[in-house]
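Practice problem: Chromosome partition protein Smc
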Amino acid sequence: MFHLKSLELLHWDYCQRLTLPLDGAIITVAGPNGSGKTTLLDAMRTLLGLECSGGRSYKTYARHANADSVWLRATVDNHPRTRQSSSRPFARSLLYADEVTLACHIARNGGDWQRRYWMGDGDVPIEALLQRPEREWLGLEAWRRRLESAGLSRAIARVLALEQGQTDRLCEYSPRELLRLVFDVFGDQEVLDRYEEARRHQQAVAAELEAAQRELAHGQAQLAELASRVNLYRQWQARVRERDALQHDIIPALQWHGARRDAAQRLWQAHRQRQRLAPLALRLAAQRQALAALHERWQQARQVLHGSDQAYQAARDDAERLGRQRDVLHDTLQQQARLQALAAIDTDHGELQRRLDALVAQAQPLQARLAALQQERHQLSTERDQLSDGRRAPPPPPEVEAFLRELRRANIGHHVVADVIDIADERWRAAAEGVLRGLRWVVVLDHADTQAEAMALAERLRYRHYVVPHGDAVPADVPRDSLLAVLRVRDTLPGWMIETLRRIRRVANIDEGLRLGGEWITPQAYWRDGRGGRSVWIEPREHQFGAAAVQARRQALDERLAQLDTEHARLLQRLQPLQHDIDAVQQALRGVGAAQQLAQRVAEFQQAQAALQALQPALADAQTRLAQALQQLEAARARERELDRQYHADQQQLQHDQSTLDEQTRHAMAALRRARDEAAALRRDRCPLPASWRHSAAVQPWWAQYGSAEGACNELARLQRDLDEGQWETDPSVEERHTLMQANVVQQELIARERQAGNAAAARAVDNARERYIDVLRSTVRRYRKNIVELGQLAGVEVHAELPHLDNDDTVLRQAELKVHFNFDGKGHIGLNDGEASGGQQVIKSLILLVGLLKDDETPGGFVFIDEPFAHLDVRNIQLVGHFLKSTRAQYVLTTPITHNVEVFEPADITLVTSKKPAGARWAPPIGVLQRRPA
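Answer key — structure tokens:
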């Protein structure tokens, strides 16, 4: 490696222009803090293509000079190390002079700075460098390669520029990093290149093998996918062929044969049915003769009943006439008894008044009840008159009618539930009426946007029923056992009402409902929901839905009116005697005495008594005749009713049997005609079929496989469903692509085998290069151990280095370490950075490791930049470090601050003294030079 001889700076930082001698073993740069010592070292680093210290940059120094360009120039030693010219440091750059000029030119390039380098034989001044052609100037990377060929390797460059206060930096290297650094400096570059080339080649081949295997795996995956797609395509083709065969061949043939077989069967059945109808016709003729005889007996019984009824009517009229006469006589005699009772108190007005009050008290409830009956009868009669035969439903209540009238007046389209529901099955009318009783007058609006106006009217009229903004149509799929199934709905209903009616199941009785569970109702309107069970029965006169409800109401009203008439007559019968007594007492109070009335009517009372006695035998005889006539009438009526029932039953049965016979005859004839027509149509339709398919034996395998034409149609539907819903491959080119991919995979397998063979050969080459690399590495480590041991002896330090374990394996080589131990003053071994060494010992350790890298018996030389190596050292350690530096053959450029300890200058051959730039001055003062005289 070369030595530095001189350094020239032009416009570097605050240096205007100066030339410094560096032709010495140890050059010390001394000066106060901030005087430019590190600036000088950074100039040398920039000239050698290294990075500046402390995060600084050459651009910073170039800007400080406020000039357009900066020059750094140095002369270095280029003497041969042996007798051969090729041993010169710059021989590879074709420079054979004993002295070589290195130059760096930093110039503005737009808004930035750009640096270029140049080297040449001899001592070339800056002025001459301005004339050098452009092609001789080098970039940073090319410059670094030139210096690396001269001995300034990249590994040495990493440890040369020790920054301020970092003299012990090499001690911070791990054993593995130290081993790598040693080999980078001392190792045979050709061996290392061959090993690295072999490794790169093997890695490239391995990468190619991996890529080939990936391509092969990808191709095999594509081949498997294509094979699956081919399989799906062939399955799809098979299903399409089967579908086409079913659609065009099998199903038409099976349908034709099935239709022919069915037609033959129906033709035979039609003939058999006609044969079975003949006995039925004969039996009906006998039934008609028997019915005629029964009709004759029924007419005779009717005549007997008519005579008995006339006799009964005459006897009843006679008995009723005598009974009325008896009642009149009884009433006259009762008046006599009441007058006699009054005569006893005739003169006692107080007793008469009490008697009158008692009679009035007895008559008042009867009169009140009679008035209530008359009022109820008037209401029912009015309601009965309203239920005309033309009404489809009973009228609504007054409050409902008033609200509906307001809706019509406001032109709000609507309908109520009661107007749109009819009950189709009268057996379930009680259940439906009970469930819908509270929902009759729910109003459903035609348009939802009218709900605000409708609800405002409902609020004003206090309408107690729901107003629903819109309704839903009843769905077609209503459960057959639901309550909704027995209702006919002509318009929309609220959705919640539809759901309620769908949810209620119709059951025959409570036991069935409990067994099935859920929500149910019986025909007797016993309803069980989620809350429990209850009866919702209502009287028929309260029914509302449909025309049948009108009839039921009318019938119920008629029955109630009859009951009211009967009760009215009974009340009049009880009230008339009381009214007579009241009249008599009132007459007595007015002065008409009871005794006087008795005297006046004595003859009347005697005649009534005599007439009643004479009437009793005649009335008894009339009642006896009436009982006999009633007995005869009942017997005749029972006989007539029995014959009437039997006649009408036989007549209905005959009509039913005749209708059945006629219907069966029509069906038989229609079936016969259809069978004949089908047979004729089948004879026409067999023409498109192949002749071989017209025989049953030809389609027998299809019958065995599919069972029938319907089974074949089901299979066709299944195949079509599979084709429509399944994931199939329908691209016919997939088979050709599969064949091409098979050939491609075969080619990829051949390439993969070739790559595998190449990878094995490359692995063997790597093993051979690694063995050579390990041999060189062992030699290098031994040489470096020898160097640091010798340097340790010079420094008075015992140095021990453990040779690493090296095997022909990349993992072992990556994990190999160079462990170095130091023994200062016999205090025991310490490692590189285990924290047991003092500051001076750390400096000595780093210098031993560093100079050991530069120590070469064949090509001695080299230089080191050390920024403040004596920091934190006492006088003894400073002397020790100085002695060590002088004992080596390397060139050192050191920096130190101005200090009273002159021991730091003792080893220096050349001392450069820097000074601070005065305030306001553009350039820094010149650097002083102190050079030791040769002894």
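Discussion: The longest strand covers residues 99-109. Students who identified this feature from the tokens alone can consider the problem solved.
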